[in-house]
Amino acid sequence: MLEALHVGTQGFSPRTRSDGQLVRFGADAARVALRGTRTPGVPLELELTLRPGEGKRARLNGVGLPSAEGLRAEVATLVFTPDRLAVVKGGPGVRRAYLDRALGRLLPSRATVPTAYATALGQRNIALRRVALGVSSREALAPWTGRVAELGTELVEARREALRFLAPAFTERAGALALPDGMLLYTGEPPTIDGLEARLERDLERGATGLGPHLDDIGILAGDRDLRLYGSQGEQRLAVLALILAEAAALAERRAVPPLLLLDDVLSELDGDRRAALLASLPPGGQAILSATSAEAMPREPDQLLEVTPGLVTVR
Questions:
Q1: For site-directed labelling of 161, which of 114, 151, 180, 184 has its Cα 20 to 30 A away?
Q2: 7, exposed or middle or buried, with CB in 10 Å at 0-12, 13-18, 19+?
Q3: Three-state DSSP state, 29
Q4: What is the pLDDT of residue 136?
Q5: How confident is the model at residue 69, as a pLDDT?
Q6: CB neighbourhood size of 315 (10 A)
């Protein structure tokens, strides 16, 4: 059910990038239709249909969207699943991807910067390999070097701006969850043409650009401890929760509409005090859907309780 809500509001699954896996066995297509309100009195209807091998079709209030990605511009949805611990435990690429998605939600006007930078970087790497093979000149490389420096600077600035919204809220939410001195740290520096040209010989040998924000990392810390290296699994879980709650608070402030929160099995490793702190940290006026193995795991009476068994959802 949580996956369907994510697909219907964001156009993709948090579990798989294979659309074919979203279609029920024996069926030739899948469809998600959602009805709710954006704000009190403002109706919102979303629909997404997908057929393996064809493009996804999305509709907003009965009107077709150019692409399923357009759903994300209309509804912000944040999801926690147990495998999201990779944001803390995984390599730098996972944290870069998370921050770039967050900046797209927090700063819609700069949402295309990460993709534009990745495209320019890919073109420069192709040009590097062509020069190394002797089928192209170094002069042909220069425009891509300038483009990587320009877009790399934009990306570093956008990431820093996104962290200015996230970092204070992260520290506050981490503290509420009994993870003191939580901090987000980004030390990336904008690439320059001079810096890229200074390492040109090494880049030609490797066939890849060795300087730029595609190599940066985001530190997720508790005091002076990097939680990736020195945090327990419980602390890493709290850090991911604090990060999601921090983004929810920042989105509620910047977009005036709280995001939809999908929290899968979020309570299983939290004690009673942390469960209560989690609920207290949810943005007011928004909607959060929590899954648990039993109703007794809920720290208070939910607004609505659904019991899910194979093929059946019952309102209790």
A1: 180
A2: buried
A3: coil
A4: 92
A5: 86
A6: 7
What local confidence, expressed as pLDDT, does residue 224 receive?
94
What's the whole-model pTM score? 0.90
Taken in order 131, 136, 139, 144, is the CA torsion positive or negative?
Answer: negative
- List pLDDT tens digits, range 252-287: 998 878 899 999 988 888 888 888 889 888 888 889
Predicted confidence at residue 152, as pLDDT, reads 98
Cα angle, residue 310 at apex, residues 306 and 313 outer, rounded to 5°: 25
Task: Please return the burial class of 178, using the count of CB atoms within 10 Å of its CB with bins 0-12, 13-18 and 19+.
Answer: middle
Could you give the CA distance from residue 159 to residue 145 in angstroms, rounded to a whole number? 21
HSE-CB of 117 using CA atoms within 13 angstroms = 26
Taking residues 72-76, report their average pLDDT: 87
- Which SS3 state, helix, strand or coil, does residue 299 take? coil
Q: What are phi and psi of 216, to 5 degrees?
A: -75, 165
Q: What is the pLDDT of residue 311?
A: 76
The count of other CB atoms within 10 Å of the CB of residue 184 is 23
> Which structural domains are found in the chain, ordered by start?
1-75 (no CATH), 76-315 (1.20.1050.90)
137 three-state secondary structure:
coil
C-beta separation of 265 from 292 below 8 A: yes
